[in-house]
Amino acid sequence: MRILITNDDGINARGLEVLHGIATELAGAGGEVWTVAPAFEQSGVAHCISYSRPMMVSELAPRRFAAEGSPADCVLAGVHDVLRDDPIDLVLSGVNRGNNSAENVLYSGTIGGAMEAALQGIPAVALSQYYGPANAHAEDPFEAARVHGADTVRRLLAFGDAGGAEYGLFYNVNFPPVPAAEVKGTRIARQGRRAGTGFGVEPQLSPAGRRFLWIRGGDQQRATAPGTDAEANLSGYISVTPMRADLTAHDALDPLSSAFA
């Protein structure tokens, strides 16, 4: 198996090292793991691509490349340049430092990398490690992902894609904020929404008196509704959410058509 890995925390991120271990286990003795990851952190860029400017791609070591672009850029570079003559069997994106559950999905570069792979017709999984009081200051905060990652992806590959849809399936996996031994299992969950929380801004003056705005996140320890991703994670479960790039609100199509009839 030939696996391409990427992330949004950058080429030197600890989570990418964890992902390389997961991918190496999945690829097996005769497989290959290739890395094309952002040269610098790209958190929050979602499915952004560098459409209006070129990007430089540098080979740092055999099968290891850094790109001056987003995770989606990295997938495009991997598919159409670095591995243009070699078919890619799987794209893994992550392991993100922090969760990509609930509304975080919409901002996530980790998700953006997996989404681009799906648009290219390649099976893809985004993996993220939830942080919380039980693991944030641990020696290995990625332990749950490190221990359970390969088996989770292996089971998803066995399931595959039901097929028939215009947009290919990809998966969003979030590991709970607990040590690996305390993971209770896996739940298939829909994307949730943390009520009353979200991103905002915080103004700050520089020493020179200039005013800047910092983007500030919401409370990540607030659970979402039953049956959703963050609720599963905060209850100690790995969440798996099947996703497609189709943003259509299908439930609104018929009522809207009636309103315009």
From TrEMBL:
Binds 1 divalent metal cation per subunit. Residues 3-195 form the Survival protein SurE-like phosphatase/nucleotidase domain. It is found in: Cytoplasm. Its EC number is 3.1.3.5. One of its GO terms (molecular function) is 5'-nucleotidase activity. It comes from the Bacteria. The keyword Hydrolase applies. It catalyses: a ribonucleoside 5'-phosphate + H2O = a ribonucleoside + phosphate. InterPro entries: SurE (IPR030048), SurE-like_Pase/nucleotidase (IPR002828), SurE-like_sf (IPR036523). Keywords: Cytoplasm, Hydrolase, Metal-binding, Nucleotide-binding. NCBIfam families: PRK00346.1-4, PRK13931.1, surE. Nucleotidase that shows phosphatase activity on nucleoside 5'-monophosphates. This is 5'-nucleotidase SurE. It comes from Roseivivax isoporae LMG 25204.
